Protein: beta-lactamase
Amino acid sequence: MFNKRIILFITVAIYTMTVFAQKTDRKLENLLLEQVKDFQGDIGIYVYHSKKNTSVAINADTIYPTASIVKVPILVGVFNKINQGELKLSDSYRYDAKRAYGGSGLMQFYKDSAQTDLSTMVSLMLTYSDNVTSIWCQELSGGGATINQLMDELGLPNTKVNSRTEGREEIWKKYGWGQTTPREIVELMRLIREGKALNPRLSDKMYRYLKNQFYNGRSLSQIPAHIATASKTGSVDDARGEVVVVHAPSGDYMFSVLTKNNKDQSWTDTNEAEELTRKISHLLWDYFEPKQRFKAYEPVL
Structure:
């Protein structure tokens, strides 16, 4: 445990020094501010270009609801248990229909007593944003308190699981299942991308899960289909968010767009926050890849 904490401390220290060394891209900042100035709600954005070591932070340290983006910290919590030898991706589980939970996902439609395994559960949690498997994975990871301690150790003190977590009942009423900041959720994705979340081998596997997304109609629709990405969306009535890593020709860039207190609470493709997220993603691609400007197709409905 002592050695593990030393390694985590060094990782967080290096990450912190890198953050402070980043240069603000003022031109991009102004473009983004112009893009979001009329948004009817609260919005936070964080953008980081790894090769240029530049960033843009707009309300990037403000706390926002994660909605289903909380499944990224839960993913790390599951892999922490794998790292400790307490879980295996091949572990077998039996689905109980009592676990059925509404919202997104497929496992709620499984037959009672159907057999599954941890790898399938993790995949459903991330690819289809499955709520049943997400709650199950949260339990298997040791619960919200265990995940929250791990986030603290990774230097992400505002990234937390609130639901089904003792002592966080009141904050759950405010933020829902989870909370984070635009900067922190990007940094968590960066730690995974760079092999610094737990260890390189486990980070690699986590990243492979994050690259498979069924919900690709927001930011991903504004990036050429042949470009590799890793991402997670989150949605509740008054908050929509997304975090994305893009493997662009000029170098990786990562960004998050988080919103709350949204006036438009519709569940359509024309939702204001979702349309704005698409515009931001398009702007970023054209900005970082001016020689490969992309004309996105109209959504296929």
